[in-house]
Amino acid sequence: MKSLILLLCLAQLWGCHSAPPGPEMNYRQLNCDDPETEQAALVAVDYLNSHLLQGYKHTLNQIDKVKVWPRQPFGEVFEVEIDTLETTCHALDPTPLANCTVRQLEEHAVEGDCDFQILKQDGQFSVLSAKCDSSPADSAEDVRKVCPDCPLLAPLNDSRVVHAAEAALAAFNAQSNGSYFQLVEISRAQLVPLPASTRVEFAVAATDCVAKEVTDPAKCNLLAEKQYGFCKATLTEKLGGEEVAVTCTVFQTQPVVPQPQPTGTNATVPTLVAVDPAAPVSPPASLPTASLVVGPMVVAAHLRPPLHRAHYDLRHAFSGVASVESTSGETFHLGKRPKVAQPGVAGTADPVVPPCPGRIRYFKV
C-alpha cells in the first residue's frame, strides 16, 4: 500500500514538472489569402525551388491551411500547408520562376503537396522545416477525359525513353562545333501511339572535350565551372529506321552573382541561348573566365532514374538538408488542444475559422 501511495505521489510530481509553465499556448488563424500568409507561402516555394537539383521548378497554386504560433522569446512560427504545380522550367534553368509556364492538365500535370514551418522574426521569414511530396495531378483516365489523344507520362527508365534520350544527345553532339555534352538526367517522357514516337526531355552538362574530337566519352570530365543545358526531343519510328528531332537550350555560365541591390535598381537577367543541333555551340574558352551557374548546382549525375519513376518526386528535394525544427518544438505543443486567438472574439468555444483553403491560382487538381 505504501508503495502504491509513493508511486502516485511520484506520478503527480512528474506531471507538474512536465507541464508547460504559464497559460495554455494560443495560436492565431489567418485567412489563407491574407497577404502575410501569402508572403510566408512564397518564401516556402522559393525554399523548395532552391533545393531542387532534379526535375522542374514548382509554383504556388493554393494555400490549404495556416496557423501562427508565438515563439519564445521572439517571433512567430507559421505552419503552412500549400499545393504547388510543376512548371516547364527545369530545376537548373536560371529563368526566374515568374517567367516559367505552368504545365497544363492535358500535358499530364504534376502537383506538389508541402508542409512548412516558417519563422517570422523582425519582419523576416526563414524556413525551419519542410516536407513535400508530389504526384501526377490526374490519373490516366482523367487526362483522357480532358484530352483523349494526349500522351501520358512514361516511366523514365523505359527502354524506349532511355534510347530516345541517348539518340537525341548523340545527334546533338554530332552537329555541335563546341563542347561535348553528357547526360545529367532524363526529366520527362511520353510515349505517343500515332505516329509511333517517344517524346523526352533531359538535362545535359558540358565537358572539357570538344564534340567533334571525342573518341572516348569516358575520358571527358564536367567543367569546373558547370555549364548546363536542357533538351527536348522526339524520336519517331520510321520504316527502315528512326528519325530524331532535338532542340537544346544551353544555360551560359554567368559572371559572379552580384550582391542583392536596393529596390529600384536594375536587375541582371540570366541569358538563355536556344541552340539548334545544326548550329555551332561556343566552346568553353569563349566564355568569361570568372563565372558560375546561377541557381542550384547538380551534386551527382543520375543517368538512370529509380525504377518506374515517371516524375521527380518532391519528397527527395530535402534529402540531407538540416532542419532546425527542434528549436521551435519547445515553444508550442501540437499534441495538445490549443486555444485559438481570434481578434475581437473572447471566450468563444467554437470560433469562426477564416476562409481556408485559399484561392486557386491556376487550376483545380
UniProtKB/TrEMBL annotation:
Pfam family, one: Cystatin
Domain of life of the organism encoding this protein: Eukaryota
Keywords: Disulfide bond, Glycoprotein, Mineral balance, Phosphoprotein, Repeat, Secreted, Signal
Name of the protein in its database record: Alpha-2-HS-glycoprotein
Subcellular location(s) per record: Secreted
InterPro entries for the chain: Cystatin_dom (IPR000010), Cystatin_Fetuin_A (IPR025760), Cystatin_sf (IPR046350), Kininogen_Fetuin_HRG (IPR050735), Prot_inh_fetuin_CS (IPR001363)
Function: Promotes endocytosis, possesses opsonic properties and influences the mineral phase of bone. Shows affinity for calcium and barium ions.
Source organism phylogeny: Eukaryota, Metazoa, Chordata, Craniata, Vertebrata
Gene source species: Daubentonia madagascariensis
GO cellular component term, pick one: extracellular region
SUPFAM superfamilies xref list: Cystatin/monellin
Keyword Signal applies: yes
